[in-house]
Design goal:
Elements (H helix, E strand, L loop, with lengths): L3 E3 L1 H13 L15 H5 L3 H7 L6 H15 L5 E3 L4 E6 L10 E6 L5 E7 L11 H5 L6 E6 L7
Length: about 150
């Protein structure tokens, strides 16, 4: 099973959530299991990641399962390298927000670019500038970012 690549910010928030809710089933302590109310209190960055793919309920279920597996002690997440590249709009909108490129599986092995994603953590992150430049189009540029989604 492949691991999900997530940011350090994601892992820090998830770890704090687990610790704040006393979710450590490996210790066999009372009330160390996950309940529905715990899921309602997921950190925003984790909840957004979990709901990332609205069109694919199976992927959304897999992401929920991966959170439960992680709480149970399984190694299901991999922290992204600190510096990567994204494709971002050259100009911000009237609210000061940029738009980003996300790459989706269109089915049947077809990769579909989606320009206009508003959350940097839902954008496609590339290991090299060259890989990102392939996906640029009019009004978009490659930007180097750190693991927290901030421009470098």
């Amino acid at each position: 099973m492949s691991r999900y690549k997530v940011t350090q910010q994601f892992m820090d928030a998830l770890t704090k959530w687990r610790d704040d809710h006393g979710l450590k089933p490996t210790t066999n302590a009372p009330r160390s299991y996950l309940e529905l109310n715990d899921l309602r209190k997921l950190p925003r960055v984790v909840d957004k990641w979990r709901h990332n793919n609205f069109e694919n309920p199976i992927e959304r279920n897999k992401r929920l399962i991966s959170i439960i597996q992680w709480v149970n002690g399984d190694d299901v997440f991999e922290v992204k390298k600190p510096h990567e590249f994204i494709v971002r709009s050259t100009k911000a909108d009237v609210d000061g927000d940029y738009r980003y490129l996300a790459i989706q599986d269109g089915g049947w092995g077809v990769i579909v670019p989606k320009y206009g994603v508003t959350d940097v953590f839902l954008a496609e992150w590339f290991a090299t500038r060259v890989d990102a430049e392939i996906w640029t189009t009019n009004g978009y540029e490659v930007v180097e970012i750190d693991g927290g989604g901030n421009e470098v």
